[in-house]
UniProtKB/TrEMBL annotation:
This is VTT domain-containing protein. Its main location: membrane. Keywords: Cell membrane, Membrane, Transmembrane, Transmembrane helix. The keyword Transmembrane helix applies.
Amino acid sequence: MTSLVKVMLTLAVFFASTFVVLKSTGLVTVSKVEAWFEMTKSVDAIYVCVVIVLLLFADLFIAIPTLTVMLLAGFFLGPLVGSISAVIGLSLAGGCGYGLSRRYGHFLLNFLVNDQQKRADTVNMFQQHGAVVILLSRATPILPEVSACMAGMTKMPFMKFCILWLVSTVPYAVIACYAGSISSVENPKPAIFTAIGLTALFWSGWFVFSKVTKAKRQLLT
């Protein structure tokens, strides 16, 4: 378990560092994202869709406020087109993270975990609990990217990863985009309550998962 946490924390620190860099340089901020949407709303909706997809895909490499992007997608495009654009962008990010890590992730794993048995234990541990990690990864920023990379690194079957990723992503995107579509500058409450509710829901899932896992360990010992 220690080795698995070490690898996941290393990935998390990497993704978090991009947020620190962007925050300090001001290259990507919530206000700038809103400004980009404002500039594109007067043109064809396809350009707004492209901006959404690119922003959510870029979240794999740089820290993007994904929930804010999805709320704005619903606001500018409506719940259906906004949701489709969001799911495409998030799926591209997840698939790319999985693919890159499946191809090159062993270099990082070998570097962080020198012992061969511990590497095998790390892979086995994620294979046992990886499905839950992916399903609940939307509880916090960075964790979705970490879970996608871990899935590729530990050679989770691609179709299994895709199904888990979509089960986690599609409802999240649909709810966020719908909330954005019924929100406005004068009435931002749907977006605010949705953001709070989604976070609370996924954190509740983590709480239940941790309790169940702890109970199983106690039974085994």
